[in-house]
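Review form for a predicted model. The reviewer records the input and the model, then writes brief findings.
Reviewer: anonymous (R2)
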Amino acid sequence: MAKLARIRISDDEASRTLAQLNDIFAMIEQMRAVDTEGIEPMNHPLGGSQRLRDDVVTEHDRREAAMRNAPEHQDGLFLVPRVIE
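Model under review:
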């Protein structure tokens, strides 16, 4: 893996990394062994919900002001030079 990532690690570091990866894979296997049939997915581990702010418009339409700065525009859109022929 270090060779693919083009990083230099010592043999000792490679051994430690291998042990850590094996631990991670063992934990994944433990989680896959748990029977989750019929259990609904949760959107929050503690059953909570996220507070959302009110969806209120805070900015006004400034399209006309933006169009005044454009060298060329048409139907409320900026026109740009063609770069691919």
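Findings: The mean pLDDT is 87.
Further findings: Residues 5 and 14 are 13 Å apart (CA to CA).
Recommendation: see findings above.
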